[in-house]
């Protein structure tokens, strides 16, 4: 079972979003083990570790029906030497298989990442691991080779001195928000989650607004709280605010840690149960504050998503495309000479296997309903996509050359074909339709038939009519207006950018010859 499914099941079964750290930290050991641990540790280190095991095992046995995940911190185990690694193996084995394990490793070293992924996922059998983001996508990729496991990218720490780096260069565009934005392009929602120090609730809210669908593991939520040891109870001071900042639009997507200090009190079950109930009550109280539409929105909801079956996957894809820089707001001269205040560069998807695969999937859904013998990509932008489609759908590929070589075979079309065959043309974006129409005509000049032109983005403003007037049927995965509204509603673009995108397509409509 994948990490995501296991977590969902554990949350549902135990009615809990609490994650409990299994940290054999002698400094917070309950008194009932501590005296024996201290007595043994000076002379018989291995015997002393046995008391840590008793403690860890007791915590697991007492709380397995109250938490949604366990989180052993690797550093506490390695600090105990070889006995610590044996303790880790025993502790992991004691966790019921239906409760996911998040190994808190904050792994950062690229050289050891392949072997670390193998050990963590294959030998220790953990379901997820925390990573430092600064090893980059290469480091994460070693762990993402295991599609049923997950990574938690540590994107914000509550350590006071970490602010020097995280908030760099300024509070308006801090590094940590760049991390949040970029790392989401590494993998989908089931396999890449975020770890956020939530002592600063504003930071948690900012992360949530940039990652509306990701699972977030909040940390340090106890930093501002006062323990009340007399009543054997700890309260999270800002619970409602933390939930409001961290929950997703459906009231999910957040895991909260149990206070480690509270485990020192010796009877964890009672404490964890009352914390779980308190959290669940607070979640229920936040329900009325959530917008009723499916997207998280700042204060408006423009989309009517009724009867739009693919809206969810389209939304995610649009946000990912934006986050990997496929949509930029800079003045660009189009092939027609017209200047647009933005540019859509779908060529970037090839550098992101996750997004590339999703984009190909959306084209494939359209192609599956069409009749054709071969696929043709329009160079250069659409050649990788057309190649991906040819492999995925098992159809032969051709492409019309952009320029005919003055030497060699001087072919107008690359690849083999038979005259009279039907070709489906694949292109990236229709602005005026000129590139796609010219490509289709080049193919037809070689004795082939073109019926359908399939693109990822229809820029609207009458381009479909132009394609039809040229004798072809246009099909598009997304319309520019859908992209624009989704980006605006999710807070990715501001009103000025929203209006720029809306106006450009309508300007083109009023002057279709441009
Ligand atoms: O934002 C843009 C605009 C254009 N392109 C490229 O141009 C053609 C589409 O333009 P037509 O006017 O329809 O010929 C498209 O194939 C892209 O290669 C772009 O990428 N992004």
TrEMBL record:
Its cofactor is Mg(2+). CDD domains: PRTases_typeI (cd06223). It is an enzyme of class 2 (transferase). GO terms for molecular function: orotate phosphoribosyltransferase activity; orotidine-5'-phosphate decarboxylase activity. It catalyses: orotidine 5'-phosphate + H(+) = UMP + CO2; orotidine 5'-phosphate + diphosphate = orotate + 5-phospho-alpha-D-ribose 1-diphosphate. It comes from the Bacteria. Its EC number is 2.4.2.10. Pathway: Pyrimidine metabolism; UMP biosynthesis via de novo pathway; UMP from orotate: step 2/2; Pyrimidine metabolism; UMP biosynthesis via de novo pathway; UMP from orotate: step 1/2. InterPro entries: Aldolase_TIM, OMPdecase_type-2, OMPdeCOase_dom, OPRT, PRTase-like, PRTase_dom, RibuloseP-bd_barrel. The keyword Cell inner membrane does not apply. Homodimer. NCBIfam families: PRK05500.1, pyrF_sub2. Belongs to the purine/pyrimidine phosphoribosyltransferase family. PyrE subfamily. This is Orotate phosphoribosyltransferase. It comes from Pseudanabaena yagii GIHE-NHR1. The gene is pyrE.
């Amino acid at each position: 079972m994948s990490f995501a499914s296991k977590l969902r099941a554990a949350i549902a079964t135990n009615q809990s979003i609490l994650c409990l750290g299994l940290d054999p930290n002698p400094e917070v050991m309950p008194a009932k083990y501590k005296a024996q641990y201290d007595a043994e540790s000076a002379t018989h280190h291995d015997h002393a570790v046995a008391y840590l095991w008793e403690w860890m095992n007791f915590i697991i046995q007492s709380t397995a029906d109250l938490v949604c995940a366990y989180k052993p911190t690797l550093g506490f185990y390695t600090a105990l030497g070889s006995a610590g690694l044996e303790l880790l193996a025993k502790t992991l084995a004691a966790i019921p298989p239906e409760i996911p394990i998040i190994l808190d490793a904050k792994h950062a070293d690229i050289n050891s990442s392949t072997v670390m992924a193998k050990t963590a996922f294959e030998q220790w059998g953990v379901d997820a691991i925390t990573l430092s983001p600064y090893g980059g996508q290469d480091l994460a990729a070693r762990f993402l080779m295991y599609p049923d496991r997950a990574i938690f990218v540590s994107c914000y720490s509550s350590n006071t001195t970490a602010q020097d780096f995280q908030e760099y260069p300024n509070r308006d565009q801090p590094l940590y928000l760049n991390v949040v934005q970029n790392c989401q392009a590494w993998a989908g929602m089931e396999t890449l989650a975020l770890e956020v120090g939530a002592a600063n609730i504003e930071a948690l809210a900012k992360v949530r607004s940039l990652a509306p669908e990701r699972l977030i593991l909040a940390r340090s939520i106890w930093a501002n709280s006062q323990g009340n040891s007399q009543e054997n109870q700890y309260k999270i001071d800002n619970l409602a605010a933390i939930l409001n900042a961290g929950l997703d639009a459906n009231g999910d997507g957040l895991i909260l840690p149990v206070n480690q200090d509270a485990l020192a009190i010796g009877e964890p079950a009672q404490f964890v149960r009352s914390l779980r109930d308190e959290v669940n009550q607070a979640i229920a109280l936040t329900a009325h504050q959530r917008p009723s539409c499916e997207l998280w929105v700042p204060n408006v909801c423009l989309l009517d998503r009724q009867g739009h079956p693919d809206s969810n996957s389209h939304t995610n894809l649009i946000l990912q495309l934006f986050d990997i820089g496929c949509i930029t707001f800079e003045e660009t001269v189009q092939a027609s000479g017209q200047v647009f205040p933005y540019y859509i560069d779908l060529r970037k998807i090839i550098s992101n296997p996750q997004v590339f695969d999703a984009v190909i999937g959306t084209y494939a859904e359209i192609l599956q309903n069409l009749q054709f013998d071969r696929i043709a990509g329009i160079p250069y932008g659409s050649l990788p996509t057309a190649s991906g489609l040819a492999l995925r759908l098992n159809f032969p590929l051709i492409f019309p050359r952009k320029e005919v070589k003055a030497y060699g075979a001087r072919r107008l079309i690359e690849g083999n074909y038979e005259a009279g065959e039907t070709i489906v043309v694949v292109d990236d974006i229709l602005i005026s339709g000129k590139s796609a129409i010219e490509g289709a005509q080049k193919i037809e000049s070689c004795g082939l038939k073109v019926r359908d032109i399939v693109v990822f983005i229809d820029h609207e403003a009458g381009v479909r009519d132009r394609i039809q007037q040229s004798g072809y049927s246009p099909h598009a995965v997304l319309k520019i207006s859908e992209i624009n509204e989704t980006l605006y509603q999710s807070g990715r673009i501001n009103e000025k950018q929203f209006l720029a995108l809306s106006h450009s397509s309508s300007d083109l409509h009023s002057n279709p010859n441009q």
